[in-house]
Amino acid sequence: MRALITDFSRVLLFPKDDSFKSGLNALNNQLLDVNPDYDFWQYFKLNYDLLEYYKSLDLPVYMFTSETIQDHPALKEVFKGIFKDIFSAKKLGLSKKEAESYIRLAKVLGHNQNEIFYIDDNYDNFTAAKKAGCKAILYKSNDDVIDRLELN
Questions:
Q1: Overall pTM surpassing 0.85 (yes/no)
Q2: CA 21 to chain centre
Q3: CA torsion sign, 63 to 64 to 65 to 68?
Q4: Helix, strand, or coil here: 22?
Q5: How many Cβ atoms from other residues are within 10 Å of residue 49's Cβ?
Q6: Tens of pLDDT, residues 13-50
Q7: Distance (Å, rounded) from C-alpha 142 to C-alpha 67?
C-alpha cells in the first residue's frame, strides 16, 4: 500500500441528527444559503477516531469527496497534518461512480491503482474504485476499516 484515499461524508463526517438520511453536501448548501456563517458543529460531527488513525499511518492520506462540504472553514484546522491533499469530484469534473475517475486520480498521485486503498460508504463508488484496480473498502465501521487496513 502506497497511499490511502478516503471519502468524507458518512465516513469521516456525519449528521448530528442520526435520523438524517439525505446528503450532507445538500444540507450544507441549504444552510449556507440561509446563513453563510452558520454554526457547522450544530449540524455535523466528525469521526475523530478514524481521523486519528489516519494521522498515525506511515503513508500519505488523501480525501476524494463528491462536492464541497470539506471546504467549510470550520474544518480547515482539523485537516492539518492529516491529508496530503483533498480532491473534489465536482471541481475536477469527475464522477465517483466511474472507474476512470480513480484511474485519473491515481495518475495525479503518481501511483498505480493497485497501490491505493480507497474507502467509501457508497456501494457504487466502492465498486467503481475496485473496477479501476484500487484495493477498495466499503465503509461499515471504524473497526472494520482498521482491521482491513492492518491485514495489508
A1: yes
A2: 17
A3: positive
A4: coil
A5: 11
A6: 999 999 999 999 999 999 999 999 999 999 999 999 99
A7: 23
